[in-house]
Automatic annotation (TrEMBL):
InterPro entries: Arg_succ_lyase_C, Argininosuccinate_lyase, Fumarase/histidase_N, Fumarate_lyase_fam, Fumarate_lyase_N, L-Aspartase-like
UniProt EC number: 4.3.2.1
Protein name: Argininosuccinate lyase
Lineage: Bacteria, Pseudomonadati, Pseudomonadota, Gammaproteobacteria, Pseudomonadales
Protein source organism: Pseudomonas kuykendallii
Gene assigned in the entry: argH
One GO term of the biological process aspect: L-arginine biosynthetic process via ornithine
GO CC terms of this entry: cytosol
UniProt family annotation: Belongs to the lyase 1 family. Argininosuccinate lyase subfamily. In the N-terminal section; belongs to the lyase 1 family. Argininosuccinate lyase subfamily.
Pathway listed: Amino-acid biosynthesis; L-arginine biosynthesis; L-arginine from L-ornithine and carbamoyl phosphate: step 3/3
Length: 501
């Protein structure tokens, strides 16, 4: 006798072994992870069907008890068969086994796998985004704590990887936190906009049953439901949006890792890491390799590639429910999110354990001519020259000092006058102590008091504001979790009441 499909009388042949092995079986590997959400979707649907009178009370009670019993037994109690195609059919088959085909089969009234899959994706994405936001908040908190600790540790700042102007290590960390704040904000905005329920959209064209989509949305902790059934089922833009945010985030953490990669080299020696976050060589005994930094940089490219893969997969699909868009197109995000959570923990480790070489940092900033801009600023103030004229004079002074092998902090007013005579035809007669002070990297940093600058006068209030923002965001994400936990408790209570427990 010919075998038939286990899920449809339309299909008269059993699923090919290759289809089971390469398509359906891999889909079932995440059954345990999605089991709780699938149960919640079923509970919300049962409660709503009963409240709307779409199934009889006695049937709803049996369904509710059956789902609760499955929940108590856990996913391991469900025998998974790839011939049943996916998680839902396996779940339903087990439920029918427990409570009978007549009542068990009523669970699917007024819905489709399509709107269920879309709902499960949003439930899972919602949780993942909250986890990512928490991880980002932790990294930002670490950056701020270290910024406060090293707010006065002077080091060279670089543009084009050339000494540019003195900054402090704390100032750099403050900038890192500020950039991560935008990443956090982007993920939060997506989280808030995507928290809409697709459940009740059915296959893509709604249902003739008088369902209450607002009720199932409420029971599942959504803020509302997606109005158009086709959009509800066919769109996965929240996945691409989230993935694009992670791509931006990974590009940024890679740039930070590159800074540390350079600063920790023997040639720079501006930053040191404990041996616990380094590796060595199999042949060269002197090596201390920045393994974590290389991992962070390498995984960034991987996450950017996942975004491209997902975008390319979805772009060729029809605007409806399709396996390539709604299954294959979403796979990249879960992988990217998992990788991002790992990388954020590693980035936190980097920020927490990196130690600046304070002595060498201020020495380099005093010798490498990164204080030259301050000398040009002094000439503008004291000699009433245009900045461009002052720039030319100081450029000559730097060239003169370099040719003579003199470090920046040994430039004096006589050298300035030599170049001023050559450039302007007259000396500037700057006060020796003012020239000396503007070329001192610590004084140079503390003179930069404009908003957003590295001086303590500017940096300390900025760090206070940043700490306040981080705490507010931490509280907001926790409040979000609390609201969802309360919604789940209400769903559980409603299901138990429906079950007569």
């Amino acid at each position: 006798m010919m075998q038939e499909s286990k899920v449809s009388r339309r299909l008269k042949e059993a699923t090919a072994p290759e289809v089971n092995e390469y398509i359906y079986r891999p889909r079932l590997e995440g059954f345990a992870d999605g089991f709780a959400n699938l149960g919640d979707v079923n509970k919300a649907h049962i409660v709503m069907l009963a409240e709307r009178g779409l199934i009889r009370e006695e049937h709803a009670a049996v369904l509710a008890r059956g789902v609760l019993d499955m929940e108590a037994a856990g996913p391991a109690a469900v025998t998974l068969d790839p011939s049943r195609e996916d998680a839902y059919f396996n779940y339903e088959a087990h439920l029918i086994e427990q409570i009978g085909a007549d009542i068990g089969g009523r669970l699917h009234t007024g819905r489709s796998r399509n709107d269920m899959l879309a709902t499960l994706d949003r439930l899972r994405c919602r949780e993942v985004l909250m986890d990512l936001i928490d991880a980002l908040i932790q990294v930002r908190q670490t950056a701020l704590e270290r910024a406060e600790a090293f707010a006065s540790v002077v080091m060279p700042g670089y543009t084009h990887l050339q000494p540019a102007q003195p900054i402090t290590y704390g100032f750099y960390l403050s900038a890192v936190e500020q950039a991560l704040e935008r990443d956090c904000r982007r993920l939060t905005q997506t989280l808030e906009s995507m928290n809409q329920s697709p459940l009740g959209a059915a296959a893509f064209a709604g249902t003739p049953f008088a369902i209450d989509r607002a009720r199932t949305a409420e029971l599942l902790g959504f803020d509302g439901y997606l109005d158009n059934a086709l959009d509800a089922v066919g769109s996965r833009d929240f996945i691409l949006e989230s993935l694009s945010h992670l791509s931006l985030l990974s590009v940024f953490w890679s740039r930070v890792a590159q800074d540390y990669f350079v600063w920790s080299t023997h040639e720079f020696s501006l930053i040191d890491f404990p041996d616990s976050v380094a590796a060595t060589s199999s042949i060269m005994p002197q090596k201390k390799n920045p393994t974590v930094l290389e991992y962070l940089k390498g995984r960034s490219g991987h996450i950017v590639g996942l975004l491209m893969g997902a975008s390319t997969t979805i772009k060729g699909s029809n605007f409806s429910h399709t396996g390539d868009a709604n299954r294959e197109g979403t796979r990249s995000f879960w992988e990217a999110a998992e990788e991002s959570l790992r990388c954020l923990k590693l980035l936190d480790l980097v920020l927490r354990t990196a130690t600046p070489n304070a002595r060498l940092g201020v020495q380099r900033a005093g010798e490498d001519f990164s204080t030259a801009t301050a000398l040009a600023d002094l000439i503008v103030r004291e000699a009433d020259l245009s900045f461009r004229e002052a720039h030319h004079v100081v450029g000559g002074v730097v060239r003169l000092a370099m040719d003579a092998g003199i470090p920046a902090h040994r430039i004096d007013t006589a050298m300035v006058d030599v170049c001023a005579l050559e450039q302007l035809g007259h000396p500037l007669n700057l006060a020796a102590d003012k020239v000396r002070d503007c070329l001192d990297p610590t004084a140079n940093v503390q003179a930069r008091t404009s908003a957003g600058g590295p001086s303590l006068l500017s940096l300390e209030p900025s760090l206070i504001r940043a700490n306040q923002r981080v705490e507010l965001e931490r509280q907001a994400n926790q409040a979000r979790r609390d609201r969802l936990a309360a919604a789940h408790e209400r769903l559980q209570a409603a299901t138990r009441a429906q079950a007569g427990l």
